[in-house]
Amino acid sequence: MAEQDEWEREFDHRWADSAEHKEPSARARMLAARWKDDPPQPAPFRADPDPGGPRRSSWVSTVVVLGCVAAVIVLLGYAQTRSPY
């Protein structure tokens, strides 16, 4: 039981959360130092990776895939009728 009391005393999260001053993480300090002289440019949330390229409709992709499947079926059917067995 004494070991549990020591554990609770050592890792008292309520005491740590009630601290007046909280030190920022190492990454936050690194970014603050980097952005002090060279702030980042604004970027939209989830920016389009290729904003200049044309966007195809999903129907075009569907037609291309179904066309390829149909061509393979026709080619296999043709090859099967040409075989001697």
Mean pLDDT score = 81
Shape: elongated
What are the low-pLDDT stretches, counting only 5+ consecutive residues below 50?
none
Helix fraction, binned, reads 55-70%
Strand content: under 5%
Q: Tally the beta strands.
A: 0
Largest sheet: none
Q: What does the radius of gyration come to?
A: 32 Å
Distance between the termini: 84 Å
Question: Could you state the order of secondary-structure elements as H and E?
Answer: HHHH
Class by SSE composition:
mainly alpha
Number of helices: 4
In short:
This protein is mostly helical and 85 residues long.
Describe, in plain words, how this protein is organized in 3D.
The chain has 85 residues and is an all-alpha fold. The protein has a domain at 58-85. 60% of the residues lie in helices and 0% in strands. It has four helices and no strands. It has helices at residues 2-10, 13-17, 26-37, 58-82. The longest helix has 25 residues, at 58-82. The mean pLDDT is 81.
